[in-house]
Amino acid sequence: MPGLSEVRALHREHPVAFDALLALVLMPIVVFVPDTERADGSALSGAAAVVAVLSCAALAFRRRQPAAVLVASVLGAGVVILLDGGPSSVALVPFVALYSFAVAHGWVSTLVGFVAAVVGVGTAVALATTPWPPDSHAFQHVSSFAVAAAVGTTVRARRAYVVAIEERAERAERTREQEAARRVAEERLRIARELHDVIAHGVAIVNVQASVARHLVLGDPPAAVAALDHVRDAGRAILDELGDVLNVLRQQDDVVDLHSPAPGLDQVHQLVASFQAAGMSIRQSVTGTPRAITGGADLVAYRVLQEALTNAHKHGTGPATMTICYEPAHVELEVTNPVGDDETADRSGGAGFGLIGMRERVAAVGGQMAARRGPDGRFEVSVRLPDRAGVHA
């Protein structure tokens, strides 16, 4: 025999069939089982039995039309009681109908249905026995109808609670999935930004020095060899930095090597030296007392200078100027370089992925950035980064 869980599953899958089965089960009970309060103990017959069977049949639609079924069952029970001349087991039909009505409607509608069922059935019993004063049998269904209404209301509240819990769980699951997708997108952006910062600088040097070596290989072999040495050193630097990034990505549980600090403003001189070794002319200006910037802005400052100098090396047409100004509450960075009049130079200065990454980095630490081409033909990148340590000092 199927267990309770299997029966419940079948009930959820085929509710109409179960309602029809309930109606069929109630028909012989209502027709052949007399009410315990009846003295003669006889079963229904004739028109009363037909009305009782029709009332039971209406229960097959109790889920789809609970209000109509409740009205039909109360009227049918009243007609049966009047035809039979007294109380009858047909009161089971409005009992089931009232329960179904309470499950489908709120407590106010359920209260109205309860009153209607009690008045309808009670009035029929009173008219069939002694209209006045009413017979005590007229009030015997009050408690049973109250139980039907209470149980139906409880079941409705329980189902609403379960639905709310399921919706909350689904909403939480969607939120977790959205948060995971957002974190994945942010991590991809961060990795792409780091790889760009690591590779773009070295590749620019490799490209420039390879072009120099190509032009000098026949006319000035020693100079070509020196340019190739720069290409080799830049390639090695790219591989080293790329290896560091990949090693961090391979580590599990976000374990980071604390002995490999991220670059900051204290390494700017090495950055400038690498560009100068590649043949780039850079004029430097530093004002204020050099210091590291707190809140992650030190790495941002280094990456901004690295990207700005890389762009100046790739697209510039003359010496670049780099200015670092240490103020008490912030640090200002500026890199300018002359650019040509061609469209490529304009585009490189406006909306390249490098500049987009710079803007995102600066905004992430609460800074401000401007990148524009001035009327004097020089492209300027200016950044203002807050120093929280200086603010609270």
UniProtKB/TrEMBL annotation:
It comes from Aeromicrobium chenweiae. One of its GO terms (molecular function) is phosphorelay sensor kinase activity. This is histidine kinase. SUPFAM superfamilies: ATPase domain of HSP90 chaperone/DNA topoisomerase II/histidine kinase. Pfam families: DUF7134, HATPase_c, HisKA_3. It is an enzyme of class 2 (transferase). Residues 187-253 form the Signal transduction histidine kinase subgroup 3 dimerisation and phosphoacceptor domain. Residues 9-159 form the DUF7134 domain. InterPro entries: DUF7134 (IPR055558), HATPase_C_sf (IPR036890), HATPase_dom (IPR003594), Sensor_HK_TwoCompSys (IPR050482), Sig_transdc_His_kin_sub3_dim/P (IPR011712). GO terms for cellular component: membrane. Keywords: ATP-binding, Kinase, Nucleotide-binding, Phosphoprotein, Transferase, Two-component regulatory system. Its EC number is 2.7.13.3. Residues 301-387 form the Histidine kinase/HSP90-like ATPase domain. It catalyses: ATP + protein L-histidine = ADP + protein N-phospho-L-histidine.
